[in-house]
Structures are given as C-alpha cells and as structure tokens.
Amino acid sequence: MRCARRWMTDAMAGLWINNLKPTDLRGRRDEDSTKGDYVVDIVNKELKLLKKEGWEVGPKAYCNAISVVGRYGKAAAAQQLFDEMVASKVAPGRQAYNGLLFAYVNSRTDYSGDRFLSIFQEMQQACPDPPDAATVAAVLHGLVKRGKHREALKAAEVFQTQGAPFTQHSYNILISSCSDMYEAYKIADMMKAAGFAPDEVTYGSMLKVCARSLDTEASRDVMSEMRKRMTPTVREWTGYMTVFKEARQVDEVLNIWEDMKAAGITPNSISYGTVIKAQCNGLKETGLEKYKDKALLLFDEAYANNAVTSAGLITIMMELHGLTKNAEGARKALGIARASGLKLTGYCKKYYAQATGESIR
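Structure (tokenized):
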C-alpha cells in the first residue's frame, strides 16, 4: 500500500511539477517577485500540501521539483529540495543531480563555478555510468558561462572518450565561447560529423565569435550561408550588425540595418540599441554631426514603434546626450524610461548628469 501511495504521488506531483509554467499564476504571484521566485513558491506549496494530506513524496516528484526550480537558477531552493530528498532517504539519481547542476549553472550567485563542479564530482561517484546528454550540456554551459573555454574543451574531450552523448546544444555552447573562427569552424565540423546540421543558434554563436575576434569577412560568410539555408531572425541580424559595430565600421552597420528592414524584419529594442550605439561610436571618433542626427532619428523611430523596452537602449541614448550636452534630450529620455517602468542603470545616471548637470532622484 505504501509503495502504491508513493507511486501515485510521483505520478501526480511529478507530472504537474514537470509541466509547471510561470503563467500558471493561480492568483498567488506577487507582482514584485520574479518568475523563478514564483516557481519556487508554487513547488514548495504543492509538496507541503501532498505531505499534509498524507502522501509520501517519492523520487520522481523530488527530481522534477529540483529540475523545474533549477531551470530558473534558484540554487538555494534546489539545494534545499535536494537535501530534503536525501534526508527523506530517497536516493538521488542522475536526474536530481542534473537539476541541481543546472540550478548552480544558471545561478547568479555561483560566479566562480566551484559549487557546480563539486556537484558534478559528487554525481560521478554516485552515478558511475557515463554522463548523459543533460549532464554534458550542464557542465559545458557552466564552464563556458564562467569564461573557462579551455576547461570546457578539455571536458568535452573527456566526455567523448567516455562515450557520453552530445546534443546540438552542447556543440553550440562550445562554438559560442571560441576566441576565433578557426576554432569555431573546427567544432562546427565536429558537430556536422555527429549528424547535426547548423541551426539558427549555431549561426548566432558564430556571429558572436566574429564580433569577439573582429572578423568581419567571416561574418559575411556566416550570414551568406545562413541566408541560403534559412531565414535569419532579428536576433541574427542584430548579431551581424554587432560584428561591424565592434569593428567600428559605422557605415556598414547602417547598410546591414537597411538590408534587415528590406528583408521584412521588424527591429526590436536590442537591434535599435546596436545601430544607435554604432552612431555614438562614430560621433566619438569623428565628431561628425551626421551620426548624432541619425541616432536621434532612430530613437524617435524606436519610440514610435513601441520598441523602447530596455534600460540598455535608454542608457545608450543618455550616452549620446552626455556627449553632446543635450539636456533637453536627456530629460526626454528619462521621461520615456519612467513612463515605461524601466530601471535606470548607473551609467545612465552618470550620462544624464553629464548632459544636464543634474542628478537623477
């Protein structure tokens, strides 16, 4: 009877928790809480409710609870659930360890990565079988996210030696962290040999490498190949512009901007920020008024298209106003930011002071 009750608990709680979405508000979400905080709150309440009604929480429910919390980088909550699972004498398997791994990988507190690596070592002892695809992705993502590209490559070699499965996501993670396109192409060739064709994430990752290495010619090749195989989204177009922005080729950024719009792509806040930032760079380096004028026109266009949705775009405009001592423009941008409920960055406040001689209260 006890085993049957545990199985039913796993079937109900496991199924519900694993399909939990932040849109399942149930009237219990605080407006100020993040999606992750909301998910943690719901998971804990559901598990407490099951226990209160006499159900024994089993491994499936715990594993799914840890996994869904881990997706949002709530490391403390995931660790608490994991410890509770162990204290309840429920043996954590690979799924529970993977959920905990992702929690620390996605966490904003485990900056060094020491904790997620120690969890991986514990997992290797508790689960002697070769790592699965989720473990591979978590470890590689964690290392790359912390700037440990060489360590990620070494880990990938070990995983391949162990016969661990790689997903396309794992290859894309490695590509995105490369320092130059020679290395990126090598990993892309490995990915193709494994049977994966490049997808939009692959091309986006390659464009990031091009921007990092200021390789404008390679970026043209990447974008050309992508357009032959699929339709680039605003994300890839923005990545393409970023390459030339970083290379300080302002006029080429504008050419790509016009190509993007001609392709029927609707710009978003990030793409507007990219092209306007390029104009700021042009103004700083040449002092030519045409760059200031173009930036102002682009911001007005973004506002008219309801695309001023990020604090980053406001910060870029404040930088422009700080450079040109445009107090009126700075106050206008501040008004738009406040009306849109955008949180101002420290740089934004600094540029506002440069433009107006006033501090933001």
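The radius of gyration is 24 Å. The longest helix spans residues 35-52.
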